[in-house]
Design a protein that fits this description.
Blueprint (H helix, E strand, L loop, with lengths): L4 H15 L8 H13 L10 H6 L2 H4 L3 H7 L1 H4 L10 H27 L2
């Protein structure tokens, strides 16, 4: 039995990438490479159904990982249009910190003005 759930996930990722072309550090070549790796058995990453089975069959010692290949060929899989965006929660946190600093500075100024 085979359920292409992982391939559906890759397809959904591609569609989101298409909508937001600067939001992902990787490119569609990486998604295609991973999709091909699921079927071609060149790497041990997607062999068997669980980490337990891969461990029992000593996949890590007998094959290489597709992630190792990707990491050693980053240039081929990098999106040249990638522009990292701040997470909105990070922005809010930074704004709060800035506001707190400003309040502290104002309080210090008031205290200094009140001193004779």
């Amino acid at each position: 039995e085979f359920a292409p759930i992982f391939l559906l996930f890759l397809d959904a990722t591609y569609k989101v990438m298409f909508q937001f072309p600067t939001a992902f550090e990787f490119n569609e070549d990486m998604l295609l490479f991973i999709a091909d790796s699921v079927y071609n058995c060149r790497f041990g990453t997607f062999l068997f159904n669980s980490e337990k089975e891969r461990s029992e069959k000593k996949v890590k010692t007998n094959t290489i990982s597709c992630w190792s290949y990707i990491n050693s060929n980053k240039r081929s899989f990098t999106n040249p249009n990638y522009a990292p965006h701040f997470n909105t929660s990070q922005q809010k946190q930074q704004q709060k910190q800035q506001q707190q600093k400003q309040k502290q500075q104002k309080q210090q100024q008031k205290q200094q003005q009140q001193q004779p």
